[in-house]
């Protein structure tokens, strides 16, 4: 069974000509959360990988995929895990890490035996996973509720009041290149990442969740003077090339997990775009 899909990198010139379906085919990842199996999206953007697993009937094993040509998944990789569901256990080379709702785990290069399970199948864990190539083995680390760095951003007046939570960033955990966090939009606000930014040094993936039934998030991408949009539903992810803005406006409030990789580990390295100059 082929348990992954490859996404190639697109140039900004090519993307200018894409229609709705082309955009969705190249950047949107639907049905991220898979029941009882790991099904990866392997991107050629900094070789960033994305998956989501909801263990219900099974203990799910982290297995390598053909694209990696490695003996085991984490032979040359690091992995970030954020649980958005009920309590679950990640077992790593014999050691159990319990992740409750909105807790995270960083796994360094070299861990061999990794499994995922839920504590209760009635309220299963929902593990969201990002992985990037690694050149060094850093220690595994759980990032619990008390370890997260919380920042308030935006305001109700500009419809972008939100709470940003840093989980896997280099002030909290040593990493080779992976960065992950979570942002929740406050009730009455709709915009994330506005003013928008680019960071040509890093690619990024946004995973939208807590989007209420019947609502949607309109995600904006593209060069700042050539934007496009993708309508997104709950539990869908979107790839942001390094040359692209990444911002969204929802028909209600919602949350998303952001994950990045590339040239540096400086979270604040962003080139902010002037709102009135977006096209
Ligand atoms: O490069 C950083 C990422 O795009 C996100 O952290 C931004 C974000 O969550 C927000 O402003 O709402
Ligand atoms: Zn960004």
TrEMBL record:
What's one GO BP annotation on this UniProt entry? D-glucuronate catabolic process
Q: Which InterPro entries does the UniProt entry name for this protein?
A: KduI, KduI/IolB_isomerase, KduI_N, RmlC-like_jellyroll, RmlC_Cupin_sf
Q: Which cofactor does it need?
A: Zn(2+)
Enzyme class label: isomerase
Q: Name one GO molecular function term.
A: zinc ion binding
Reactions catalysed:
5-dehydro-4-deoxy-D-glucuronate = 3-deoxy-D-glycero-2,5-hexodiulosonate
- Keywords, comma-separated and alphabetical: Isomerase, Metal-binding, Zinc
Per the record, the domain of life is Bacteria
- How are cofactors bound according to the entry's free-text note? Binds 1 zinc ion per subunit.
| Record pathway | Glycan metabolism; pectin degradation; 2-dehydro-3-deoxy-D-gluconate from pectin: step 4/5
Q: What is its EC number?
A: 5.3.1.17
Q: Where does Zn(2+) bind?
A: 197, 199, 204, 246
Which PANTHER family does its entry note? 4-DEOXY-L-THREO-5-HEXOSULOSE-URONATE KETOL-ISOMERASE
NCBIfam families attached here? Answer: PRK00924.1
Q: Which family does it belong to?
A: Belongs to the KduI family.
Q: What does this protein do?
A: Catalyzes the isomerization of 5-dehydro-4-deoxy-D-glucuronate to 3-deoxy-D-glycero-2,5-hexodiulosonate.
Know the name of this protein? Answer: 4-deoxy-L-threo-5-hexosulose-uronate ketol-isomerase
Native source species: Yeosuana aromativorans
Gene designation? kduI
């Amino acid at each position: 069974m082929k348990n992954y899909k490859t996404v190639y990198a697109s140039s900004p010139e090519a993307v200018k000509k894409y229609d709705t379906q082309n955009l969705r085919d190249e950047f949107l990842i639907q049905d991220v959360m898979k029941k009882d199996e790991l099904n990866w999206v392997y991107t050629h953007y900094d070789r960033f990988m994305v998956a989501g697993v909801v263990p219900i009937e099974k203990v799910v094993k982290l297995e390598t995929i053909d694209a990696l040509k490695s003996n085991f998944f984490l032979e040359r990789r690091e992995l970030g895990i954020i649980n958005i569901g009920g309590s679950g256990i990640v077992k790593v080379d014999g050691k159990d890490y319990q992740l409750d709702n909105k807790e995270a785990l960083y796994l360094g290069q070299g861990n061999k035996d990794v499994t995922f399970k839920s504590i209760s199948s009635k309220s299963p864990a929902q593990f969201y996973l990002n992985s990037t190539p690694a050149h060094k083995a850093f220690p595994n680390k759980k990032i619990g509720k008390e370890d997260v760095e919380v920042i308030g951003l935006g305001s109700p007046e500009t419809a972008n009041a939100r709470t940003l939570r840093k989980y896997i960033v280099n002030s909290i955990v040593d990493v080779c290149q992976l960065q992950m966090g979570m942002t929740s939009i406050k009730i009455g606000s709709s915009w994330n990442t506005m003013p928008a930014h680019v960071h040509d040094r890093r690619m990024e993936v946004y995973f939208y969740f807590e989007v209420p039934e019947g609502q949607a998030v309109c995600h904006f991408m593209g060069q700042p003077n050539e934007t496009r949009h993708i309508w997104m539903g709950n539990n869908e992810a979107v790839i942001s090339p390094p040359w692209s803005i990444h911002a969204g406006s929802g028909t209600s409030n919602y949350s998303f997990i952001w994950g990045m990789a590339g040239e540096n580990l400086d979270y604040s390295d962003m080139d902010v775009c002037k709102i009135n100059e977006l096209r």
